[in-house]
Amino acid sequence: EHVRGGGGTAFDPVLSYANEMRPDGVVYFTDGWGPRPEVACRVPILWVITPGGVRPDAWGHLPGRKVPMRA
Fold this sequence. Notes:
Blueprint (H helix, E strand, L loop, with lengths): L11 H10 L4 E5 L14 E5 L15 E4 L3
Parallel strand pairs: 1-2, 2-3
């Protein structure tokens, strides 16, 4: 079955958890549709943007490094 995202992901809960647990980094698989995080993450973040997600010219609201996922 094909799963589709609806956008509007709340990124802050994961970033808050990462701040508490202090991993070496966070890899976030997302379509990128969601508000700018309000939580400043204390570890590096890699955003993997899924196919059909936010276009690269609209990734500015996501802090950290961003890469597109290949289909």
